């Protein structure tokens, strides 16, 4: 268990199996070996091991909770819900199980039940900082009135007061204040944060996002890496909590209409692969599927999930520049939202494609017919359609198709985005 907690999975697996050689069906060894197997992408084996352990120790709340986590992360929400309820039946004060139950209820859009579950968590554990943070996020993401966003402000304040290491609570506080049009208060949150941590990239970027400093042309590498490395362990969970997150599926469906045959013959790059959510959507088309992401934490999760032939940690523009004309498809769901100016990265994307290859990506949509880019309080950029069409043409793309769709929900409201397809001309010459 010490090796497991230190992320030395090879040693941990060897020792768990030695325990099971010495004592067949030792339940703790089966339970934690199951957790480890899931971490390595062998989720079916993980379920088998933990279910076997629970036959021996059926009232083990941690095992029920971990089995629920595996079902949750595999998208089996009803099974996960049953496991968390069993964990709570065995241990009524199992705060993690109560938290996880709230998450899967929210993911199933049973918002009233989810609210009650979060409220029960805070009632049971009023000094549990993460609980206040999650309630704040729930209230803002599902806000039906201004009062809900105001309540989220108090939750984020409490979360940070209870745990000053929870900087995501500060970020959430700033976003909620801005959503309430309290821009100066939001900016002051980030200024105060910068006084405490002058080199921290998150408050520096978010201060610009809420209008308190000049907006950069793109989010800095240090900001993106810091946010997503810290987000890696809970990234899929956060997406689960918003079933309206549709960008990968919508983009894959649009691309599929152009590729027609899923015959496994294409070289595909998942540009900004994150935890690997897009791999199952792209795998049927690919003879070789490569993922690249700036966050090492995200890439490690993608490696555990499986589905890729190759994974690399790299900045996207530089990666594309070093791989000329080797891809048939570049697929980028919700990655270029961290780029304001798109010209350079789209130039390199065109050069990385073979003639006739397709670029598919999503952006958040800015209103208006003018050529414009906006940095929003979320820390992401929005682009007008006119800007997108201009930079694609300048990069050398043809067959440009830009359509609008709802890609996610934020603060209880739909976020409209661009679903973009562009083809490198079949007879294109090298730049």
TrEMBL record:
Matches recorded under SMART domains: TPR
CDD domains named in the record: AdoMet_MTases
TPR repeat ranges per the UniProt record: 27-60, 61-94
Keyword annotations of the record: TPR repeat
Pfam short name (any one): TPR_16
InterPro entries: Methyltransf_11, SAM-dependent_MTases_sf, TMTC_O-mannosyl-trnsfr, TPR-like_helical_dom_sf, TPR_rpt
Methyltransferase type domain ranges (all copies): 269-361
Domain of life: Bacteria
PROSITE patterns, per database record: TPR (PS50005)
PANTHER family recorded: PROTEIN O-MANNOSYL-TRANSFERASE TMTC1 (PTHR44809:SF1), PTHR44809
Protein name, UniProt field: Methyltransferase type 11 domain-containing protein
Species for this entry: Dyella acidisoli
